[in-house]
């Protein structure tokens, strides 16, 4: 919302002179040109129609500006940060914040793998079409904004069901040199230091940060250390052409406390029965970015990007009802290497007198994953991934991908636009290597496999604008190829269906969003998500005997339909009653979502035999709820700010979830399956700014010390039920000079 302010300037000396000489002074009045004041937009903001050669018209999207939010950025507390985005499911494996696990609309939050996860617009997950888990995310103290675009983004960013999640890092463009530091201490030995320098000198810009953090952890056996370093440099050839490069290096090691049975969790959720389990993922991400404005009609962006990383784990991975016998631990390793180039363009043209926009581009991508599993590790308790002999599994997976895409925004009028689009994907996966070692010591080969797909995807977006609000609608196809990682998951208790099929479906949105005057920001929408051939887990008894334990049989479970309502509203109470000057800004916000996620074609399997050699019989049982999909997720909060002080109190409510497709209610003896109760968590965070450039931040997470859990695991980092953290606090001091 914009206001025109006409400034009236009268010279005081001129008035006196006019009065003394009995003169009229109207002629001495000077009218200055109008000055446009733009109030700070309430969080979350929304994307403009076009940004960085991407069309966002007609798509549901949110932009979180972190400087407008109070929260625990030190440990990347996703529960606080994503509270203003409705429908976000969060897995809380542990409190380190090294990995952010989020999903939307009832989709799995597992390392955000149903989202296309990016940093500054380029991929940061292991292998987009082979193993799309995000083991890395930037420290939120280094992040300027978080952008989330729902399923309508699949035409321009790839065929994922959840949408696109992009972390945009901070940059300094106003000073020649700036320095920022944020230093934090907190519960259970938390120590963190974030330090950054940046600036602009003539045609050059640069930004470099280092973030280091360590803690003992709320649970026993959950200590961690993490370091994250990033460097960025940019050169502007002209006002319209620039070239930049950036590099990120992360390394961490984290002790994994393991899962619990329900009995153990109820007795003491902080306890751990595993002290020899460790996890680490050294990560390297780099990109080169070229932006140019060719003429008034055409702009172009090209990103060359790559990733070299590892996933390393060592430990005793038995279920929590099995005692660690202190024998040789299991070592699993993944080695990732991927490269890509992505070109995006916007062409502006006129049909009649109305401007229209065409977004088009191409993507080339290649990834390689070497999967080494079931190595015979040491009997020690430290983070040692050396092995004795060979890995039982030694597999090599390669992904090649070519995509072309185009969306055109046809503006029927200044208010109404129609945006059809198409994306064509070609994906080829190959796999080879050793799947096992038999009793004679000979290799069991993995059947050499090459899977090729050519997949067109179509979509349509609509948007009608009013003065400060708009109605939007979108329907877009989505696609998820079978991953080679689906055939060989790290979850050691799972049994895999060798005949897995690709998943396909679509996302649909209809919503109303915008601002009203200067005190209300809102977005309410309906969604419908169809997911065919969804891969999930069916609980089975070993040898059909409940006394021998359970395992999950992973297979295509038929079609699921996720539908519901998502709503967000932020009401500035003091602006509403025009009392913000004496009392500051008091905002009430609420993000609510009601999610109905069900199987409409549910194929249930009964197993006989000994895993993994099982015989399967099939029946159909539709109507079951999708696992890990709560029926509701609500966040309510009050945020107050006045001059240099601000505080936010927020309350999260999340419904109970089933953890397997059978909708098993009674927990299994090993803690791997069974319903998880709903939970309520209250968080409080504050910030005080002083001497212009300094700040003190403090907060308490889980203020009322709620005992809860958000997930169960079949393998790492469990198996078993994984408790959420109890009450913790932090205090931080920082400066930006």
UniProtKB/TrEMBL annotation:
Record bears the keyword Signal: yes
Record-linked InterPro entries: Beta-barrel_TonB, Beta-barrel_TonB_sf, Plug_dom, Plug_dom_sf, TonB-dep_rcpt-like
Subcellular location as annotated: Cell outer membrane
Domain TonB-dependent receptor-like beta-barrel: 237-703
Signal peptide boundaries: 1-18
Keywords, alphabetical: Cell outer membrane, Membrane, Receptor, Signal, TonB box, Transmembrane, Transmembrane beta strand, Transport
Domain TonB-dependent receptor plug: 74-160
Protein topology in the membrane: Multi-pass membrane protein
Gene3D superfamilies: TonB-dependent receptor, beta-barrel domain (2.40.170.20), TonB-dependent receptor, plug domain (2.170.130.10)
A Pfam entry, by short name: Plug
Top-level taxon: Bacteria
Family: Belongs to the TonB-dependent receptor family.
PANTHER family xref list: FE(3+) DICITRATE TRANSPORT PROTEIN FECA, IRON III DICITRATE TRANSPORT PROTEIN FECA
Protein name, per record: TonB-dependent receptor
Gene source species: Flavobacterium macrobrachii
């Amino acid at each position: 919302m914009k206001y025109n302010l006409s400034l009236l300037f009268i010279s005081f000396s001129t008035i006196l002179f006019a009065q003394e000489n009995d003169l009229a002074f109207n002629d001495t009045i000077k009218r200055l040109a109008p000055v446009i004041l733009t109030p700070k937009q309430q969080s979350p903001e929304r994307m403009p129609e076009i940004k960085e050669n991407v069309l966002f018209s007609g798509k549901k999207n949110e932009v979180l500006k972190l400087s407008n939010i109070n929260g625990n950025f030190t440990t990347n507390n996703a529960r606080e940060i994503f509270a203003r985005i409705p429908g976000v499911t969060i897995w809380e494996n542990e409190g380190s914040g090294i990995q952010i696990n989020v999903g939307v609309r009832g989709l799995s939050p597992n390392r955000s793998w149903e989202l296309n996860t990016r940093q500054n617009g380029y991929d940061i997950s292991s292998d987009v079409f082979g193993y799309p888990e995000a083991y890395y995310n930037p420290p939120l103290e280094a992040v300027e904004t978080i952008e989330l675009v729902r399923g309508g983004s699949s035409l321009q960013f790839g065929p994922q069901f959840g949408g696109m999640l992009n972390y945009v890092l901070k940059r300094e463009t106003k000073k020649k040199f700036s320095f920022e530091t944020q230093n934090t201490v907190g519960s259970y030995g938390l120590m963190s230091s974030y330090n950054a320098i940046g600036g602009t000198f003539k045609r050059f810009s640069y930004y470099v940060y280092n973030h280091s953090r360590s803690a003992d952890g709320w649970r026993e056996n959950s200590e961690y250390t993490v370091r994250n370093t990033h460097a960025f440099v940019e050169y502007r050839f002209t006002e319209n052409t620039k070239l930049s490069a950036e590099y990120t290096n992360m390394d961490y090691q984290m002790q994994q406390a393991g899962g619990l049975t329900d009995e153990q969790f109820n007795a003491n959720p902080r306890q751990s029965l595993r002290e020899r389990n460790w996890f680490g993922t050294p990560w390297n991400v780099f990109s080169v970015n070229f932006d140019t404005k060719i003429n008034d009609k055409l702009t172009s962006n090209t990103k060359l990007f790559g990733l070299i990383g590892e996933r390393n784990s060592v430990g005793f991975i038995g279920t929590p009802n099995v005692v660690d016998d202190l024998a040789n631990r299991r070592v699993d390793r993944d080695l990732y290497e991927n490269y890509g180039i992505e070109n995006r363009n916007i062409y502006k043209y006129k049909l009649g007198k109305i401007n229209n926009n065409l977004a088009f581009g191409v993507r080339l991508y290649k990834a390689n994953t070497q999967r080494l599993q079931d190595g015979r590790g040491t009997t020690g308790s430290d983070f040692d991934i050396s092995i004795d002999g060979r890995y039982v599994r030694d597999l090599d997976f390669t992904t090649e991908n070519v995509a072309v895409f185009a969306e055109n925004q046809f503006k029927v009028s200044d208010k109404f636009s129609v945006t059809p689009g198409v994306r064509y994907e070609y994906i080829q996966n190959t796999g080879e290597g050793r799947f096992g070692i038999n009793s004679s010591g000979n290799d069991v080969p993995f059947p050499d496999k090459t899977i090729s797909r050519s997949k067109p995807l179509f979509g349509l977006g609509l948007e009608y604008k009013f003065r400060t609000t708009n109605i939007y609608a979108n329907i877009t196809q989505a696609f998820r190829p079978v991953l080679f990682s689906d055939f060989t998951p790290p979850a050691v208790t799972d049994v895999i269906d060798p005949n897995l099929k690709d998943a396909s479906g679509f996302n649909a949105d209809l919503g109303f969003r915008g601002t009203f005057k200067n005190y209300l920001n809102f977005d309410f929408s309906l969604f419908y998500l169809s997911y065919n051939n969804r891969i999930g887990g069916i609980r089975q008894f070993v040898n059909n005997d409940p006394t021998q334990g359970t395992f999950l049989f992973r297979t295509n479970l038929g079609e699921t339909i996720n539908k519901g309502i998502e709503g967000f509203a932020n009401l500035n109470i003091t602006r509403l009653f025009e009392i913000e000057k004496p009392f500051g800004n008091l905002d009430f916000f609420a993000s609510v979502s009601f999610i109905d996620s069900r199987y409409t074609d549910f194929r249930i399997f009964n197993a006989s035999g000994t895993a993994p050699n099982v015989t399967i019989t099939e029946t159909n049982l539709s109507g079951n709820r999708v696992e890990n999909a709560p029926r509701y997720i609500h966040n309510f909060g009050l945020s107050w700010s006045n001059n240099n002080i601000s505080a936010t109190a927020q309350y999260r409510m999340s419904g109970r979830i089933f953890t397997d497709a059978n909708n098993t209610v009674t927990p299994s003896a090993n803690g791997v399956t069974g319903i998880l109760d709903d939970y309520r968590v209250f968080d409080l965070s504050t910030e005080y700014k002083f001497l212009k450039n300094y700040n003190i931040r403090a907060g308490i997470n889980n203020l009322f010390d709620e005992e809860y859990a958000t997930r169960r695991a079949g393998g790492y980092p469990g198996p078993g039920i994984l408790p959420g953290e109890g009450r913790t606090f932090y205090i931080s001091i920082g400066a930006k000079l």
